[in-house]
Amino acid sequence: MMVSMTNPNILILGGSGFIGRSLCEQLIRAYGGRARITVPTRRLSHAQAIQGLPGLTVLQADVHQAGQLESLLTGHDLVINLIAILQGSEAQFERAHVALPRHLAKVCAATGLRRLIHVSALGVADDGQPAPSRYLRSKAAGEAVLRGANLDLTLLRPSVVFGAGDHFVNLFAKLQAVFPVLPLAGAHVKFQPVWVEDVAAAIVACVLDGSTAGQTFELAGPQVLSLADIAHLAGQISGHARPIFALPAPLAWAQAVAMELMPGEPLMSRDNLASMRVANVASGLLPGLETLGLSPQSIAAVVPSYLSAGQGCARLEAWRAARH
């Protein structure tokens, strides 16, 4: 059993992202400034939201480049890996979800760092069966790489993550503010959305409790909802509720193809559709947020704090103060 660290040096890969920003804030509060946190980022502008946090250092670095990851890990007690992509080619998924964990495992061995917390995804199969999408297959392969390494490893599998600034609930609200009808692929697929602050709190709990090494946790909220339910909730709270048209499979596929051809990151891809063949809900076979001493907040309770006009920032801060 690992001994928990009282003044750790923590490296967070992906710390400037959606989950990372909440995690950095919560770690600093949890340790009262005693932890030293390093967040590498390819562009310093991406880390503006966390650069002023006490005890946190932002470094410009590319963790995919040979030599840079080893330099970053040296002197740290543990590493938290949040790096992931939702869209991309087979090669891009391989690079982010498999090659990076493989490189990370090798560098951990070379530097003597053993403690790793890795954020994966709900829907990754444990039965050896191939997953339906490149995203889930690459996530499973990354987990397998890390499990095969000699590490004190904690795996966290969140459901779809929502919160202020997300590209999930906010997207549905924005689309309904513009269009009179919302055509929705995968409308009946089930999700168990989890609040970003609960995901961050779960990671902090694993940092604080060394006995979580060797375990896998499913991070899911208290509500199981269809995608149509979530979209309807976003429309209602934002004041732009529209009729939702559930697209049949052939039209959903055609919509995804069309979106992939548009410039920029697609709102929906064929790989996203393939991922939705697997319900994004907790299996109940693995420990969850409650095991970590957390009471997950529902999407219905939290979303009004950041979708209601003029109240988002103040109400979100009130939530954070009440929880921590």
Just give the CATH class of one domain. Alpha Beta
Strand content: 15-25%
Query: How much is the radius of gyration in Å?
Result: 19 Å
Mean of the pLDDT scores?
90
The helix count comes to 12
Shape: globular
Strand arrangement in the largest pleated sheet: 3-2-1-4-5-6-11
Structure described in brief:
This protein has 324 residues and is an alpha/beta fold. It has twelve helices and 13 strands.
Question: Can you give a write-up of this model?
Answer:
- The chain has 324 residues and is α/β, with parallel strands linked by helices.
- It has a domain at 9-159 and 195-220 and 282-296: Rossmann fold.
- Helix content is 40%, strand content 15%.
- The chain contains twelve helices and 13 strands.
- The strands form four sheets. Strands 3-2-1-4-5-6-11 form a seven-stranded parallel β-sheet, sandwiched between helices.
- The chain is globular.
- The protein starts with 8 loop residues before the first strand and ends with a helix.
- The model is unreliable at 309-320 (pLDDT under 50).
Could you outline the blueprint of secondary structure elements for this entry?
Elements: E1 9-13, H1 18-31, E2 36-41, E3 56-60, H2 68-73, E4 78-81, H3 90-111, E5 115-119, H4 134-147, E6 152-158, E7 161-162, H5 169-178, E8 182-184, E9 190-191, E10 194-195, H6 196-208, E11 216-219, E12 225-226, H7 227-238, E13 244-246, H8 249-261, H9 270-275, H10 299-302, H11 304-307, H12 312-323
Parallel strand pairs: 1-2, 1-4, 2-3, 4-5, 5-6, 6-11, 7-10, 8-13
Antiparallel strand pairs: 9-12
Helix pairs in contact: 1-6, 3-4, 5-7
